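Good morning C.,

I know you're traveling, so I'll keep this short. The sequence:
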Amino acid sequence: MGARPWVAAAFLLPALVLLGALVGYPIVFSVYRSLFDVSGNGFVGLGNYGEMFSDDAIRTALKNNVIWVVVAPTVSTALGLIFAVLTERIRWGTAFKLVVFMPMAISMLAAGIIFRLVYDQDPERGVANAVWVSVHDTFAEPAPFPGAGPRPNADLKPSGGGAFTTKSAVRAAPSIPPATPSAPPAAPDSPASVVAPTDPAFPASPATPTDPASPVTPASPADLPLVAVQPDDVRDARSAAVAQPRPGSITGTVWLDFTRGGGGRPNVIDANEKALAGVKVEAVKDGRVVASATTAEDGTYTLPADKADGARLRLPAANFAALYNGVDWLGPALVTPAIIGSYVWMWTGFAMVLIAAGLAGVPRELLEAARVDGAGEWQVFRRITVPLLAPVLVVVLVTLMINVLKIFDLVYIIARGSSIRSANVLALQLFQSSFGTDVDEGLGSAIAVFLLLLVLPVMYVNLRRIRKERRR
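The tokens, ready to paste straight into the viewer:
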């Protein structure tokens, strides 16, 4: 080769031309284009770079890229190391490695579609929420009438947190004292037996309310009508019963104030209107619950008067909490961790295979010598296995970091609607700025150059490692 360098140049020329056309020219043109405005005619210098750091969307993308670089490669490498070490100790380790590595055979596009379905909010479609709802419903009691509420003109009003409280306080029915024994009849010749003649000028006085023998009217029941109850929740319910006043108690009925077919009267228990059984009713004084009851099958309830008299009635939010539909994995708060989870699912197999190959070259006598000297498995792993695998771990970590800096397709496919702004990354922002609705090729080129500058240090570390390996 030293005598005929043109032979080597002839063989390298096609590769150099291809590399220059696909890599060299785009880099040079991107640097040049980043110095011009939207039209490409006005020179703006570093203006696009200044705009890049002042734009909220790009700052969000930069923040998410930092999260990606720190979390995704670290978790994938750690899981790959654990799987590689553990699969050496099981009989079916090869089958396990095949299953873990299988996602690598799936394209990013297909993986994005799969995980968009996995993270679907509807538990009937999303596997993640189906599992989560099953666990939640195992330990949490469902609300008896989700979504129900009072009529707009009812005494019940929203009191915060999904609960409803009456505006007026309730009063207990007074106890009826026992009747006093009547006086014995007077003797015929006694003065009291003389019947005074009826004189129109002196009419008889009616019984006063203070008369112990006069009748006492009990307090009216505290009825609580509700509407917007789902038909399935009252399909087998009994007809609502009118609560009867009880002396010394507070009674009432909670029912669905709706007559099928129309014709019912508001705030009145009409025939065939359904009772709402299992509704918790609380008596509240000064913000404190002093008594509570649960409605019976006919919708009636009873509260002790000695505690609930003068209190307001509250229906807690637990009666009406909406059905639990799982976690909004693709919402603004969790979309980035959810997408990172899909990336880890894909690339853990890659890390495991490389680490397992490095682990196969670890001298077994060192591990056995450590065990003979009394070292535990954790000590052998931490002090011998991991240090010997350090070069392989660096290779995997650096490779995944370079890959993560360019992540685009998973985010573009999985994130939906407004969540894509919360999940934004630099590569996706580069695409949107260059080819989206607000096309600005100058800004897009500036993002491309900035992304290249972020990748260069990682590439430099990788090249130094390769040179050290060659010297050995």
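Safe travels,
E.
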